[in-house]
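User: Can you predict the 3D structure of Elongator complex protein 1? Sequence below.
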Amino acid sequence: MSWEQEQEQETTAEPMVAVTTDGCLLATDLKSGEQIQWAMVTGEELMDAPLLPHSFVAMHVAADGESVSLAAADGVVVVHELQDNVTEAVGDIEAGIAAMAWSPDDDAVVIVTAAAPVPSVLLLNRDWFPVAELPWDAPPPARPADPALTLDNQPPDGPESEIEFGAAAGVRITWRPDGAFFAVNAWDAAAGKRRINVYSRSGELVHGSDPFAALGVAMAWKPSGAVFATSQRLPEGNAVVFFESNALRHGQFTLAPADAELSVADLKWAPDGEVLAVLLTTADGAPAKLQLWAASNYCWALKDEIRLAPGSDPLLHFEWDPLGIELTLFLVHASGACYSRRYCWDTALGSGLFADNTFPVAVAAGHMVKITFLGLAVVPPPYATLELAVPPEFGPALGSPAFAPGSLALAVTGPAHVLIYEADGRGSYAGSPAAAVPLPEPLSQLQWLSQDALVGVGADGASLVVLARDAGAAFDSLSLAARVAVEGLVLRLDVSAHTGMALIQLADGRLFRYQGVGGLAVPLQVAGGRVSLPAPCEEMTSMKWNGPQGATTVVIARSALNKLYINGVCVADTASSFALHARFLLYTTIAAELVFVPWTTDVSSSVLESQVTVLESRLVERGAQLVGVVETGVRVVLQMPRGNVEVIEPRPLVKARVAALLARKNYGAAFTIMRRQRLDLNLLVETDLEAFVTDAPLVVDQLGKPDSLNLVLTRLAVSTVSLKDATADANLRIVPQISSATDAGTALRAALAKTEKTRDVAALRADDGTAAGHARVNRVCAALRTAMLARPDAAAWELAILTSLAVQVPPALEEALVRVQDLRAAMQADAVGSPSDGSLVRVVVDVGAGAAPAPHAKPTSLGPAQALDYLVFLADADELFDVALGLYDWDLVRLVASRTQKDPREYAPLLECLATLPPPFAHHVVDTYLGRIDKALAALVQVGDGEVSRAAVRQLATYFAAGEFLDLANGESTHVSLAELHDLYLRVVAEAKAHAVGQAIAAEANVPILAARVAVAHAHALVARGKVAEGGALLAAAGEHAAAREAYLAAGEWRLAFASAHALGYDVDALLEMAYEASEKLAARGKAAAAAQILVRYARDVDAAVEALLAGDEWMDAVWTARQAGRDDLVEADVRDGVVASAAEWLSTIEEKHAKWRRGVGKLAGMFERRAAAGGYHRPSHAGNESEASAADDAFSDTSSVVSGFTTSTASSSGASALSSSASVRSQARRRRKAAAKRAKAAAKRSGGLSGEAYAVAGLKRSVPSAAFTSKVGELVRACLYFGENAAGAALQARFDAYLIDIEYMYGLLDMGAAAIAPAPAAPAPTASASHLPPGFELNTVTLADGSLASFTMRPVLQHEDVSWKARSLAAP
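Assistant: Sure. Here are the predicted structure tokens for Elongator complex protein 1:
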């Protein structure tokens, strides 16, 4: 705690009034500093005896500051009006007055009479009318017999010789701040000691204390109302004791032994209750000292001491600023001089002792300085790591201690000396001061300007005093080096280690800087402009801020009103404390948050006034204050309201520390922090992937243990995780693939360029986010694996090597199992000198912190069984079993199965069977099961005729329950023939749809018959899957023209179908029959023009061709066909009649569509109106939703019924039944889902809920005519015009035009209505502005009923905006 200045004017709510030695009232306006003195009226005018100053026992200034009430010892009570300078006597108590006190709200006053032997307690209202009166010696209510309370209420009595001290001290009254109780401290004549009575506001005695010897008269109730303080003279000296509202004792603290001869004359609490002012007087009543005491964790310590010189201008009165916004103490002396001393809480922080960042914090506590090294241990106050004694002749310690740069020395300010404590070279300080330098005058806010100079504020408050020594000289050579005048009263002085300059804050907010001994205090300028603070700030410092414009000096300050300023601009109005870190500004808020601001924030005035970048915030305990931050570490020290200290390590500081360590390639320390703080270890890799891969050997060396590397490998993620310049933004984040419009445009351009070069899907997917993430993981695994294999103790890292294989994407389990094979082979080969269990040896390296791993350490065993157990932990057991099976090593498969807890009855028969099969067929069986079709086919073509026994196939059929093995097992011969193997080959190809692969493998194996069969099977498979054109081409290429003809006909490729017919040698009759067949199929598929061409070319049937064209609404093609054949009769009869009939039919269809559209729009309008009347949108609950419940049940049923193709059943029927059961369940689930969706859609449509409204909007949009429909209408209109049927054409055109106009106008209103019912927060409507409209839309407005304008879209792209379909020559009917 340090005091900031002493000045003669300050701000308060009311004047401070004192009685001068000559009997006058002295009122000081502490806002303007103006003093007014009134001479009291003579005693003859108001009372019998004159009023002398010493005759007043109490004085009170009214809350409005307009009057003062005074009580004299002889019983006279007067009120003096300050504005009118009029004194009025309001009463006279014959018994005399011993004390008087007003309630906090000025509604009641208590007077204790001086009548002997028993005084009375009088309670009066604000108009001086009596409310209650009772004698002082009235017995208090009986107290419950509680031994704990009784013992607690028996403090040690003072010496008997001091009883008279209490008797002569008079009476004191104190009110509880809420006005509910008041306490009276008076002499109990019967007990010969003092005691305290507690009364209610109504004047009832509620509690009474036991009598105490040597109890002082001074008494003051704490602002919180918890306790009230008084004094007592104990054998060890003066003490301040506390009592609760029930008059029970509640703790105490003892004053310094040097003050034992003084007496406690007065006690006054600061408005916040944190500081207690104690006035000490000599035996003759002269003020001697004014001390300020504060508590932390219930331990009281002396924070400041004002020594009052005897005889010269004695202290007349002292008072705390009642506003309590700032901790200000006012002193009024007998001469009329009024001074104010403003205090603030200050923290003495070291900058890191001996470069090990022990973070010393010092606290002055009377004749002791307590130091705690928070970087090493957290010791809650009042305890400390180190206690330095302040010699009595130089003490007590005043204000806040100051650490020299580097914390190599500590300066402690005393009343007349500054004590220097030097570091002892062992991370601590010497127990006694190295020097006691006399001060030229009392100094405040003393700080180190450099290693050889101290600077403080002079006694006048308007100058700086500099003490300096020669470089390298002893500290006792410090002497006055400079006195620097400043242009006003200095409010705050701060020397920052970041800037090396002294920052001076004046009372008017102006800022000056002082740098170097012998210089001048000059105005502070930042970026070419002067900086000032808009309000007085208790906390202030300067630093170098690394913003976008480069490093600049900034001033950070916090006012008593919790406003945080940067260069005079308020950036936070709820900041309760702040501290500096090497990369962040931290501050707490009154909302119990800890906020982090990165140093890279732009601190220009324009930016600060708009918004300050807040990186992150976290909750802390309410009322917590920042003590400090380990500037290059991660620890943040907070002091809680009750006084205890807590340390946290916030995420932003941790991430910044990790980023700094990784930048220095200190992977081991970064790993330790990340593991302790549970950070994503993937940060080690992704912060700088290229550096990590390059430094893979260094990473392995620094991590030191395979277990540590295993943790890193298993945390590798596909997503990109980055610290992203932790000095600016230490957030752990997933880096998005596209983060802005610019990125999106760049990505689209790159995609266009890539698709120009290739159409290969695999190549196009190779660079997407997932593939890139897989490549990163595999690259890191490969780099670390290479580094481990290159070490001389590579065997010690076998588990980590296996981990690097298992976490690859996809996992390299095959390579991992190969290493297990090697382990097994080495175990079998290494029969001499191996451990008793026959396992391999590996090296285990135990590396201490910071030590390099030993190149050759004592080996320990690692066998294949342990390696397999570890792989089972990392990978899926079934997948591991399959991979082992794919290596064709049946012994390894048996070992894997035994380590994965598989039932031997499941795999033993299979392995025995596979061992009896020829290797190619065994490989085919395994590869078919594993889905490696190319390998399975390649192995199958190598199997010879009669090599596979039928019995082995029967055993396979029993194990796999597969159809192909069942068919082979039912043969009559003892061995499988080559033809059966070819049939099996074709079946595998067909089921796997691997015809191209099968054909290539058969051709490469020189089996042309099999390759040809595969080609034909492929063609038939394509036709069956609907790719009839492609299948027909393959059939034609294979010479299967009959099948090709059917395929071409089904595909509508009539020309190729007739080409196949010609290849088959069809005669005229066959071609005629095929023509009618093909035309019928094409007409049914809507290809009327193709059907007409076949009928004209192959059947020479013009009538049928025209009929087909008219049926297909190809009116003008019918005209052309008839005219070309010279059949005008068909044009005038059939075609004309067909056009007229079509016009009537289409007109009816359009009228029906138009009417349906308008009905739909009307229904939707009703939905919107009902929604508005019901109060808007309310999201329906999903509880009880039948469709969702059904979907969930179906999903459960579906997933729970899936069975593996590689079943463990031992019966052939079980697998088939399971598969059929699964298919049946899935089919039922799909049917239930479809039915539920249909029911939900119908219910929504009926109810008109949001889904119903959306359904109606979607239905209306789907009814918009397509481009093909519009084109057909245009063709029909022109056909009517061709045949002179103008009336029919005009009617059709007018009706369709009206339909389109309705759609074009109402289409945008659908979106506007849907936006009106959208749930909040609604997405921006597509009609918000023209720049947000889709292509082809226009922004229009419509006037609503209230006169306002509503925007909506109009003229959507309906693909008929080009009105070329219209016949302009036709007039509307």
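The chain has a mean pLDDT of 74. The longest helix spans residues 1128-1173.
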